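User: Design a sequence. Structure:
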């Protein structure tokens, strides 16, 4: 009789773990980069392959790194929000065109608008890998010292920008 209960107990334990896991928000995955220096990079821009930008070029500025790709459906959802957010703001918004084709990235920005101060070209995903990107879009807020202060997984929404990103940007700019 006791041996017959073992599979039932194991099943119930598994069901409890599954139920707890289903209640977790995948956008709340903590990043090991929070409060650590942003990984260094030097990369060509999407618009001009002869021009490069490095992380160290951004030291002294509060900036946002937004990882995107022309093949990404969620990026298409997020993009108008970014365009509207960047309009009329003194904001350093750096795009990271992740595992994409340069011509597709350029066409995307021409078609949908370019909210970025600059957009880096990361065709093999090495920069994204250093930042712990496992899907696009992902967004990082980085302070003047080059320290990652926030990471958002998934498309930015007006609510996330209003409730999380903008207050953080104000604190970091003060």
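Assistant: Done.
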């Amino acid at each position: 009789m006791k041996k017959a209960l073992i599979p039932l107990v194991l099943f119930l334990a598994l069901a409890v773990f599954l139920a707890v896991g289903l209640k977790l928000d995948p956008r709340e995955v903590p990043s090991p980069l929070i409060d650590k220096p942003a990984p260094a990079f030097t990369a060509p821009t999407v618009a001009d392959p002869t021009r490069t930008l490095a992380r160290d070029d951004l030291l002294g500025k509060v900036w946002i790194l937004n990882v995107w790709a022309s093949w990404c459906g969620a990026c298409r959802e997020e993009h108008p929000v970014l365009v509207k957010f960047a309009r009329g703001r003194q904001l350093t918004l750096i795009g990271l065109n992740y595992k994409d084709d340069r011509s597709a990235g350029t066409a995307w920005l021409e078609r949908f608008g370019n909210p970025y101060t600059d957009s880096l070209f990361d065709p093999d995903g090495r920069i994204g890998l250093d930042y712990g990107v496992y899907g696009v879009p992902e967004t990082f807020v980085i302070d003047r010292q080059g320290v990652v202060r926030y990471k958002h997984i998934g498309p930015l929404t007006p609510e996330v920008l209003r409730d999380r990103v903008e207050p953080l940007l104000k604190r970091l700019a003060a």
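The longest strand covers residues 92-98. The mean pLDDT is 90.
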